[in-house]
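Dissemination and training. As part of the outreach component of the grant, students in the summer workshop were shown how a complex can be specified as a set of sequence lines and then modelled as a single object. The example used during the hands-on session is reproduced here so that future cohorts can follow it. Participants entered these lines:
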Amino acid sequence: MKHSIISLLASSILALSAFAVQADESVTIKIKDHKFNPAEVTIPANTKVKFIIENLDPTPEEFESYELHREKIIQGNSKGVVFIGPLKPGKYAFFGEFNMATAQGHIIVK
Amino acid sequence: MLSTAILVFREVLEAALVIGLVAAATRELNGNKRWIAMGLGAGILGAIIIALLTDAIGAAAEGLGQELLNAIILLAAVIMLGWHNVWMRKHAAELTQHVKNMGSKVGSGELPLYALAVVVGLAVLREGAEVVLFLYGQFASGTSVAQMTAGGAMGTALGVVVGVALYSGLMRIPMRHLFSVTAIMLLVLAAGLAAQAAAYLVQADVLPALGYNLWDTSWILSQQSVLGSVLHTLIGYIDRPMGIQLVFYVVTLLVIGGLMRWVNGQSAGRPMTAAAVVILLTFAVGSLLTPSTASATHKIYSPYVELGEAELELRGHTTDDDDPAKDSQEKYKIEFGYGVTEKWFTSVFGEIEEEQPDNELEWEATAWENIFQLTDQGRYFVDFGVYLEYELTHESNTPDKVEAKLLMEKPTGGFSHTMNLIWEHEVGSNAASGTGFGYAWRTKWHYNPKFEPALEIYGDLGKWDNLDSRDNTDQRAGPVIGGEFAKQADGSKWVYELGYLFGFTDAAPDGTLKFLIEYEFRF
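and obtained this result:
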């Protein structure tokens, strides 16, 4: 067992060292009055895209998506970065967990 | 008020379930309530601190502080749960005996109750920080304190009710089964938390997703529903999981489960073996069905090395396809290797290739390969080895290549199952950026040493950090027969393999005929 843990660790370190951040495209989404703008974003398939979420409200928001497995708290008047993709074509919903009644949006992947 | 109640409920629910489970798991241990209360108190305090530091945390690690902190908190909880379970398993017999004989609780003297107190603290901290930030937002945007308090209290109360329900349910379990039932529950809780940590690591871009939405059961049971949330916390239910989450889940189960058996003096048990095989197969088949271009040559490596064994081998393949570009590609390898120690086999091989039909066969490359056996054969439920290769090309303007493989093998009954995970990286002139990732799988039936049928699967998954869509990848699978002949008393023998692989994707040739002939001897 000790050896298998070591080998697992070794393989993950090997894997991690070979892994580099790369994102060609970026999209900015603004949050104002607990709404996303734009609320619909189209991105290309099989591409990693950098999303910059700017929260213009004074209160914190949590950008969240079950389909995309993303969850990020963004303080009032600040911004956060979330990488999304590479994804298969389809429609993926996201929402603001602290204001679910109004903060709804989706990403269309083509 | 209702929105406050709903959000608070969702966050409190997770922490309450963890506390309910921990309280039940430790009910026969003296001082458990005190430790849980301490965990809860520290968690609430920590939640407030984390909430206050949100800006600073978010800005740390180039904007990925939040993701990394969440992953660390979750993994720390996984380690604590693992430690508790292993410790309990080691002392299970004496604990049960003590409670039976003395009719009293076990003294808290050497019990690692702080491990579970830390788990409680971490659960409260993570969920609590979100509640604090949310309530702050509500307050700042003018929701009255009365409404917030009412909503928060309602949400908390509901969450606690579910936690208490779990606790009282578990209290009905007879004492003699208590430790084993709660051990399993804590084990799957840990696996679920590890899967959540994987999601944060993907978000932080530290790990690849290995495919999104491996399956989608949100139409049966949404993760947003109450039952979905409860199961998400308790057993790690995810309605649309990523591949890496499944891997984290399974590895956590196997590692903690394996350690629990090991401290108990048990060898690899059948259930564990079955689990390992099913899971590795799921991963291989999953990869075959989701994304995936091909390992250069089609050979599967076992993680075993034999001291003093020398082998001379010729292997190769030729392809068949309607598209002339993919037809009649021939490749051969000639190899000479030797088992230098019990754990290290090293060899040198030459690669001869005809990439286009009617071209000359050319000596393309020379490579040095090494296999290191990491674990003694049969000692653990899976045997591990590592393969490292450097390939020196003889063509100008062509890069060299480094290849690493993780080798795993598991014998079950008359079969053995072998899996190789393959990483390839080009170096030198015109090297492609990134690291290629692929796998190979073989299930072999030991029917007769002279005749052993097997199924082999090969897949290239594209770049490690950017897996290709399935159509662009090379996926092949098919039957292979192999065996030995002309075995002599001095141990020398001939080995053969012959197989036909069908291409399952457009990128793969329709068919690949492969063969191997080898002479093994000792000196």
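Confidence is low (pLDDT under 50) at residues 1-23 of chain A. Students were then asked to discuss how this feature might be tested experimentally.
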